[in-house]
Design a protein that fits this description.
Blueprint lengths: L4 E2 L10 H11 L9 H8 L1 E2 L12 H21 L4 E5 L6 H5 L6 E6 L1 H7 L9 E5 L17 E5 L7 H15 L4 E8 L1 H9 L12 H5 L3 E8 L10 H12 L1 H4 L2 E8 L10
Parallel strand pairs: 1-2, 3-4, 3-6, 4-5, 6-7
Antiparallel strand pairs: 7-9, 8-9
């Protein structure tokens, strides 16, 4: 993968280092959740200011459980739609396309800001049927590069929290109006109190309390699943953190601190269950 690269990103963009660091810690754990060896390879080729990641280790299972749950849904969707398109905006340095596999006769599109794509390119293999695109998820121009007629799965992880309601609504409306073949949209949200805490710490985060709100924004969306990351405490291999998550899950605000939502996207021709 070449020489070691110095990481020089903006403050918000450096958050892509957090899940990378968490996956490396997980790989070295006796009971890994993901076992993502790609993360180890990538971090080994980056010159990182450890202060950017050191303080995030305690809540790493929020990242790991979220990623594992999304991986399972993406893997199942790709197996059912080998001709489909997976769009992963805000991909960062994530190796999901390699972990779960690209659609056999379709396309996988990873998207991120130009500076992130410049850092990522060459660090991870680009298999057949894979495309890495530089752009912003809120810019309508790049969507024209994605096939509109095939079933589509849009996956946004650790992204929508930083867009705000108007930004998220704009993206969902564009997806619902463009893709005629149906499919799914999967993204994570944090509770309003988490968003307030993030802003108090200087991060431009926003929470979503009503998980049905996207349905009212876009009639073409139908909520089919809402996964509570904290509520999945039984999947945490380390007992102290498993107990902490279990205690937090008793409180609705704690249980809903981070959720992953899966929406069915009804195409104009009337897609069936699962897109």
């Amino acid at each position: 993968m070449g020489a070691v690269r110095r990481v020089g990103l903006g403050r918000v963009e450096t958050t892509l280092l957090w899940p990378l660091h968490h996956k490396v810690l997980d790989f070295r754990n006796r009971e890994p959740v993901l076992g993502d060896v790609w993360a180890v390879d990538v971090l080994d080729h980056l010159e990182v200011d450890r202060r950017d990641v050191r303080g995030t280790s305690g809540d790493r299972y929020l990242t790991l459980l979220r990623a594992a749950w999304i991986d399972a849904r993406v893997r199942a969707w790709v197996a059912a739609h080998p001709e489909g398109t997976v769009v992963h905006p805000g991909c960062g340095l994530d190796a999901r396309a390699l972990r779960v596999g690209v659609p056999g006769r379709g396309l996988w599109v990873d998207l991120d800001l130009p500076e992130v794509v410049a850092l990522r390119r060459g660090l991870l293999p680009e298999p057949r049927g894979y495309r890495l695109v530089a752009g912003s998820v809120t810019d309508p121009a790049w969507w024209g590069r994605v096939p509109a007629g095939a079933p589509v799965l849009v996956v946004a992880e650790g992204l929508f929290e930083y867009l705000g309601a108007a930004g998220v609504r704009g993206v969902l409306e564009r997806v619902a109006s463009r893709f005629t073949g149906g499919g799914e949209v999967v993204f994570d949200v944090v509770a309003p109190w988490v968003g307030r805490a993030g802003r108090a710490a200087g991060w431009p985060m926003h929470g979503l309390g009503d998980v049905r709100l996207p349905e009212r924004w876009c009639p073409g969306l139908e909520l089919v699943e809402a996964y509570s990351v904290v509520g999945d405490f039984g999947s945490v291999p380390e007992r102290p953190l498993r107990v902490l998550y279990r205690v937090l899950s008793v409180w609705p605000g704690g249980r809903d601190a981070m959720r992953v939502l899966r929406f069915r996207l009804r195409g104009r021709a009337g897609a069936g269950p699962g897109g």
